[in-house]
Each structure stands twice: as structure tokens, then as C-alpha cells.
């Protein structure tokens, strides 16, 4: 941790196993996960279903007791195995926004909002409660509905209420587990923008869980990519997309062509030379340290929008540069703003996002180029 970063949460080597079936090996739903949540940031746990996101979040909340590791929150240790320390959920400085919002149907909007001030960790008294709740409802655009039953709110309004209520508990960190997954796509996109702008406006720290990579990229300052109980990569969204450190990350986030590599060598001027079925490919991005750029295996990774393609005249054989090769168009889909091509070269399908005006049809040969500056070598 650097001197100028204040972390709201520090998680070190967190592990959680569930009771195992007799005779089988212990399996860990969370298997040595470490990451920080800096104060004021929006951090997302992203990964496929079953990779351990919810379990991690529930351990942070104290709803689940981890098997090993340590959790610090606001500078205090709230969980530590050797120290035998376990702070109860209600004594941790968090607020959880559940998937179903957890709005109380038998209460008014105002009473829902005021709930954490009447029953929570930072209990208050008297008139102050009503005033603070009304101020908050005003800020999330629900003041006019304060006296309605909570069930009279739309889905989007319920989400705002859940957010307002969580903030009124004065949490150090807001924990959100797939809060948008029950909504249709259009509303989801709208509410995720709203969620992000509220988070910035209130300067609250958020730890968010989703399996939706677009949501994670759009919302987060930092994304923790998880796979099978461990962390694959922790980075800012742009960095994750442009510099994935594993084939798993490249494939899970956005679309990626992953071309198997036969063998690799380091290029003296920098970069990696990878021999593949389609030809020799120069990669100026790599997940592998300089000294280890020899051997076999791994993948060349290139995003569809970074593959260059040009048509050829059917009569003559095209002149090829070193980094170009010939492929045959297998499918060509016009998508309005672009052409989505699958080109097969040496039996390897390559997905290409080309400009809409590029005239080419299935069966035609095209020249394909991987730009070394946007092409990565990923070890397997
Ligand atoms: N209460 C439980 N008992 C046993 N296994 C569980 C329990 N909860 C989760 N698991 C297992 O732990 C793994 C991680 O689950 P979870 O954290 O819910 O994943 P995610 O939220 O990423 O979809 C899964 O294999 C799941 O089956
Ligand atoms: Mg989950």
C-alpha cells in the first residue's frame, strides 16, 4: 500500500471452503484471494458464475465465516484466523444492497430510508432522522414519494431507495451483489449510469459484484477478475481490455482471437515472435517477462477491431508484407456501423470487425494483418 492511498478494505489471502462430502478432497470456493478497495473507489469483482464472487462479498460482510486469511476495514481487523478475530456483520462498517433491493413492503418510502438510522450500527434519535432521510430522498429524486408505500415504486425507484437507505447507515463501504441483474437490458444500462453518478456524487466506496463484463467495464475504477476461486488480474478497465494477462481474461472480457502458438522467441528490439498456424506473428504486447520469452505454448491474442483486412483482386496473387497473410472469408455480417467477418486462415477462424463499406463476400480471399502494437502474446 502506498502512502497516499487510503484503503477502505484490505483482503489478504482469503479462503473459504464449504463442508466437504465425506471422502472427497477439500475444495475452496475462494482460494487465496487478495485485493484492496481504496477509499472512494468503485471496485468490481467480475467472473463467471460459480467463481466465488458472492462468497467473497459475504465474507467481507461477515455473513460467511472464511476458512483462512484476513480482512481489514477502515483500518480495523474484522476477520483474522490466527488472531481468532471475527467482527459480527452488524458491527462492520458496511451496507449491503441485495439483488432484490430488500425494500420493506409494509413500510413507507420514508420509513424504509430511515430504517438504518433507527436500527443500525449508527443509531440516531428524534427529528434529525426524518430530516436526514428527507434530504437523502431529495437527492435521489424520491422526496415527492416519501409517504407512499414502498411497493408503489417502480423497479428503478426501488433501486434508488435501496441506495439511499444504504447510504443513510453511513457505511465505510457499500457492498452490491448483482443489483441490476433482475432488470431488462435497457433499464439496466440506464440504472448503471445512475448508480455510478450517485456513487461519485456521494463519494462512497463501493465493492460491486457482477458476471457482466460490460457492466464491470462501464462502472469500475478497478476490476478484480476472478476464475475458479482465485484472482486472474486486477486492473483498470482499459488496461484489462488492452493488456489482458491471461487467455482467460482476454476471452472473458470483450471478444478476442486466441491463436495457439507453437513456439516463441524474444526479438532483440523488444517483443515476442510467435510461430502459429497462420504464420509468424510479432507481438509487442506480452504477459510474459523479457527473460522468459522462449519456449512453446500460449496464445497470440488480437481483438477483432485490431485486425486489419483488405480485399484482393481475384485475378492476381497479392503481394504480402511480412506480417500479412491470406485468408478466406467464411461469413460476413453487415451490422450497420461495421462488418463482422470470420476469415479462415490455415484452418484457424479469425473474427474481424471491419469497416461497413468493405465489400467482401463469403468464399473470397482477403489479406489479413495483425498490427504488432495491438497484438499480445499470452502464456498459457
Ligand atoms: N452454501 C454453500 N455450500 C456449499 N457450496 C457453496 C455454497 N455457496 C456457494 N457454494 C459454492 O461455492 C462456489 C462459489 O459460489 P459463489 O460465491 O456463489 O459464486 P458466484 O457468486 O461467483 O457465482 C460455487 O462452486 C458454489 O457452488
Ligand atoms: Mg453470485
Can you walk through the features of this model?
By secondary structure, the chain is an alpha+beta fold. It has 2 domains: about 240 residues, Rossmann fold (3-Layer(aba) Sandwich), CATH 3.40.50; about 120 residues, OB fold (Dihydrolipoamide Acetyltransferase, E2P). Helices cover about 20% and strands about 35% of the residues. It contains 8 helices and 23 strands. Strands 12, 13, 14, 15, 16, 17 and 23 form a 7-stranded mixed sheet that branches. β5 and β6 form a beta hairpin. α2 packs parallel to α4. The longest helix has 18 residues. The radius of gyration is 25 Å and the shape is globular. It starts with 6 loop residues before the first strand and ends with a strand. Adenosine-5'-diphosphate (ADP) binds next to α1.
Average predicted local confidence, pLDDT:
90
Which molecules are bound in this entry?
adenosine-5'-diphosphate, magnesium ion
Q: What composes the largest sheet?
A: 7 strands, mixed
CATH topology of the largest domain: Rossmann fold
Write down the CATH class of the largest domain.
Answer: Alpha Beta
Number of helices: 8
Structural class by sheet pairing and helices: alpha+beta
* Strand proportion: 35-45%
The residue fraction in helices comes out at: 10-25%
Q: What are the low-pLDDT stretches, counting only 5+ consecutive residues below 50?
A: none
Query: Could you name the CATH homologous superfamily of the largest domain?
Result: P-loop containing nucleotide triphosphate hydrolases
Cα end-to-end separation: 30 Å
Number of strand elements = 23
Provide the gyration radius in Å.
25 Å
Q: CATH architecture of the largest domain, please?
A: 3-Layer(aba) Sandwich
Shape field: globular
Number of domains as seen in the coordinates: 2
Amino acid at each position: 500500500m502506498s502512502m497516499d492511498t487510503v484503503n477502505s478494505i484490505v483482503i489478504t489471502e482469503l479462503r473459504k471452503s464449504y463442508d466437504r462430502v465425506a471422502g472427497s478432497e477439500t475444495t475452496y470456493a475462494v482460494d487465496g484471494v487478495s485485493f484492496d478497495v481504496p477509499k472512494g473507489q468503485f471496485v468490481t469483482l467480475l467472473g463467471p458464475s460459480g467463481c466465488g464472487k458472492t462468497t467473497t462479498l459475504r465474507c467481507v460482510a461477515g455473513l460467511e465465516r472464511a476458512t483462512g486469511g484476513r480482512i481489514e476495514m477502515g483500518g480495523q481487523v474484522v476477520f483474522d484466523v490466527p488472531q481468532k478475530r471475527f467482527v459480527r456483520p452488524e458491527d462492520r462498517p458496511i451496507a449491503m444492497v441485495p439483488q432484490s433491493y430488500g425494500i420493506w413492503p409494509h413500510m413507507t418510502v420514508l420509513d424504509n430510508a430511515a430504517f438504518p438510522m433507527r436500527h443500525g450500527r449508527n443509531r440516531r434519535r428524534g427529528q434529525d432522522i426524518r430530516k436526514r432521510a428527507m434530504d437523502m430522498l431529495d437527492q435521489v429524486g424520491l422526496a415527492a414519494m416519501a409517504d407512499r408505500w414502498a411497493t408503489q415504486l417502480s423497479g428503478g425507484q426501488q433501486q434508488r431507495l435501496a441506495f439511499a437507505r444504504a447510504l443513510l447507515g453511513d457505511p465505510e463501504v457499500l457492498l452490491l451483489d448483482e443489483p441490476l441483474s433482475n432488470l431488462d437490458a435497457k433499464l439496466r444500462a440506464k440504472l448503471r449510469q445512475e448508480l455510478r453518478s450517485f456513487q461519485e456524487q456521494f463519494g462512497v466506496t463501493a465493492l460491486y459484484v457482477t458476471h457482466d463484463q460490460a457492466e464491470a467495464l462501464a462502472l469500475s475504477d478497478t476490476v478484480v477478475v476472478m476464475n475458479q476461486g482465485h484472482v486472474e488480474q486486477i486492473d483498470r478497465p482499459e488496461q484489462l481490455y488492452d493488456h489482458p494477462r491471461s487467455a482467460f481474461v482476454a476471452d472473458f472480457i470483450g471478444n478476442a482471437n486466441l491463436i495457439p502458438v507453437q513456439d516463441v522467441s524474444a526479438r532483440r528490439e523488444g517483443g515476442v515472435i510467435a510461430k502459429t498456424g497462420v504464420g509468424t506473428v510479432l507481438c509487442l504486447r506480452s504477459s510474459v517477462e523479457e527473460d522468459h520469452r522462449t519456449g512453446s505454448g500460449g496464445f497470440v491474442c488480437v481483438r477483432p477491431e485490431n485486425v486489419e483486412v483488405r480485399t484482393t483482386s481475384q485475378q492476381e496473387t497479392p503481394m504480402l508484407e511480412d506480417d500479412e497473410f491470406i485468408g478466406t472469408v467464411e461469413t460476413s455480417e453487415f451490422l450497420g456501423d461495421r462488418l463482422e467477418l470470420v476469415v479462415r486462415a490455415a484452418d484457424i477462424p479469425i473474427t474481424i470487425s471491419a469497416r461497413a463499406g468493405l465489400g467482401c463476400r463469403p468464399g473470397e480471399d482477403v489479406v489479413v494483418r495483425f498490427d504488432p502494437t495491438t497484438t499480445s502474446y499470452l502464456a498459457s
